[in-house]
Fold each of these.
Amino acid sequence: MEKNEIKKICCIGAGYVGGPTMAVFAKYCPNIQITVADINELRINAWNHKNTSKLPIFEPGLEEIIIRRRNKNLFFTCNVENAISDADMIFISVNTPTKTKGIGAGKASDLKWVEASARQIAKYAKSNTIVVEKSTLPVRTAETIKNILLRSQENDLKIEKKSFSVLSNPEFLSEGQAIKDLENPDRVLIGGDDEKAIRLLTNIYLNWIPAHKIIKTNLWSSELSKLTSNAFLAQRISSINSISAICEETGADINQVKNAVGMDNRIGQQFLKAGPGFGGSCFQKDILNLVYLCEYYKLDDVANYWQGVVDINNWQKSRISKLILDYLFGNVSGKKITILGFAFKANTNDTRQSPSIQICKDLLLEGAEISIYDPKVEKDKIEDDLKFVSYQVETKWSRKDSIEEASKDSDAIVVLTEWEEFYNINWDFIYTIMRKPAWVFDTRSCINYQKANKAGFNVWTLGNAMENNSQF
Ligand code: NAD
Ligand code: UDX
């Protein structure tokens, strides 16, 4: 009986989390009507586009689900009020970026979109609606949401006061494999104290997730677990990136070190791949959030510890820019540099906090001309990401449609995203169309460097000393 109580779900926010998550809910819960509502009309139009290759988000497996579920039990709308008033359960899945001004700027999360959602819910939702935090939020935000839900009704004399249950159900999906993660997560975490609400949300997940993977905690543990998970993952990347620099100095090979270290069961191989620094909308934001929380509670040593993870990440990006400059005789002004990969990782069109942005910025400030190729990132996104550089200097960059076009007449190629098509580039041909000496800088250890070297390139790979590198 209870299983059927949730008939209508609304998700506020049709972004990288809201869209794919609700698509998977719709796939496994055909009897629940799911409406994803967003104030961004362009985004909603793209979700509703007849041509499903125009969806606003690229995720392997997503398009197939949209084709099967859209306008059956999955709807995308700008009419947020209606979607809210219809729902038995509302997920808040809006953006929570780092604050750029005011108290806590640069560290704390900006909760204005969460607050706006809570106010709308208070106004339009039915009483007894279950409100689920899906966005990643600072610890104790659920308290704020509860407060807004109750107190914002005070001015409305006409209505009978409504009550709400608030649950925390953080999302652990990783972009580029969101559908896989949503269909087969390591765990589903539900935080809260309202037994009935917890049971109703659990019942939804039980449609495709085994019971032992659904864990329950109090609200604050749930919120903190999400921040901690991201902090631990990011910490591993900063740790291995710090070791990559030692490898370059000593003649050790970062991939050999990674394999040897990762074979210790207690450590494991995942999240030990050295690279140009972590990007994405979550890691930096969530660690800074943790740092802010520690500072708030006067845990300064703990704050410094986690701040170090972000500092090493920034250091990795800038040291890569510096060494490109060094190898190109200390001057890139008037030189053309090809950037392969602008997304923050492969299999996504997302560029938020992508290391490519910082590295392009450094090279543009040095006067280089940049030619970018990424199979999924559109020109307007790159333009948006690089526009802050154009406020400082006159920039020369272009987006090209292929590796060949981007490489023509360039002095160096910098591989920044591990797209599969970069694994087997025809280096013999690319060498013929570049200026000499031609360089390849591989920050992802993903190219066939022997072939590039044989073709005539000078090859630098992250975490390998140039003089000891087997390609020389
Ligand atoms: P996003 O920016 O892609 O999407 C958020 C959407 O919310 C936007 O389309 C925006 O227009 C909409 N929105 C904002 N305020 C609104 C309102 N009042 N009414 C209706 N729509 C509104 O963000 P995202 O990447 O989906 O992340 C959402 C949350 O999930 C964040 O808290 C993030 O930290 C967390 N998260 C993200 C990931 C990830 O991989 N991207 C993974 C886990 C958790
Ligand atoms: C991350 C978390 O993995 C996910 O659980 C959370 O819900 C959201 O944040 P996401 O940012 O989408 O997911 O991608 P992730 O695979 O974690 O990669 C983040 C960054 O770290 C990327 O720039 C990636 O290239 C980099 N990375 C990842 C490494 O440099 N080395 C690794 O071994 C793994």
Note: The radius of gyration is 24 Å.
Amino acid sequence: MAATSRVDSQGKAPSSAPMPRILSGIQPSGQLHLGNWAGAVRQWVELQETQESFIFVASYHALTTVKKPEELRHAVRQIAVDLVALGIDPARTCLYAQQDVPEVTELAWLLSCVCPMSLADKGVSFKDKTAKGFEANLGLYTYPILQAADILGPDSDIVPVGKDQIQHIEIARDLAGKFNALYGEVFKLPAWRLHPESDVLPGIDGQKMSKSYGNTIDPFQDEKPLRKRIMSIVSDSTPVDQPKDPDSDATFRIFRAVAGKADPRTIELERKYREPPAGGFGYGHAKQALFEMLLERFAAARTRRAQLMADPAEIDRILAQGAQRARVLVRATVDRARRACGLA
Ligand code: ADP
Ligand code: TRP
């Protein structure tokens, strides 16, 4: 399926169609990082301008791997604060914590009863997580079924995510299709969506940036440690006066993903990689440019985050309001599904 099969490249529906509903989530399993922002969060911020939006903190999902209650409690609130700081506007987006919409777990059960073992077996996240040393619990194994419930519960049309989540959206479509085939048209089939400039963002070691690899860059980190972190990004040993390949360099790829391909600063940086100016251009210069660009790009978000952190009641109020709205929608879907399958 094409990333934009039901929407154009800006995520807008054809004018004759009703306004699509977008839904996505992020796990509170660690500090939000630039990869999350580039692959997922920035699309959510852009799309909320024109779409009806639902974004949630996937706390039941995080419970599959996070076993410290205080850590989980803190992370749910912290991710919500970070999302608002990065531009998720509670006046436009229904922002909630998954645990405040417990109806999704009921829906997950109904869906699990039409999920063949062979489909659950295909889930790459279970294999990935257990390979990384996480306990092989049943929640981790059935994770994609809960994710399908998250998606189908609010009748979402589009699920904007990073590339690694495509399989989960496909599983949600499969489960919706199976349930509909058995019981009639209960669920809408959602489409996934990638950011038009989507790339898997590398971390400081050049691998995919991920919380579980310890290679992330935190856009909210204090300036000094942030600069140190950026200076530690891997690079090869090409001398300053020699041309360098920007596409294989993590510093450049991060710069391009954040500033944008068409940004004059990206174009200028690319030129310096390919044709170093007199006096040379080394990776240290590129890293300094990345550091400065990040500070500028996230200046407003950093200020907003500090304000939100000074007033914890505000984020609790936002999450409570969001959950109230989401629950009504999910309850209606669960009731429809119950009636269809004979549980009325
Ligand atoms: P992590 O791998 O750090 O645990 P998550 O699984 O919580 O990240 O991902 C949350 C969202 O961010 C998903 O939509 C995912 O596709 C996106 N994402 C995560 N890492 C990256 C990356 N390195 N590049 C692009 N998108 C990413
Ligand atoms: N599995 C997603 C991740 O790790 C988080 C998630 C849970 C999600 N439920 C979702 C994403 C529903 C989109 C839609 O990133």
Note: The chain has two domains: 21-200+312-341, 221-297.
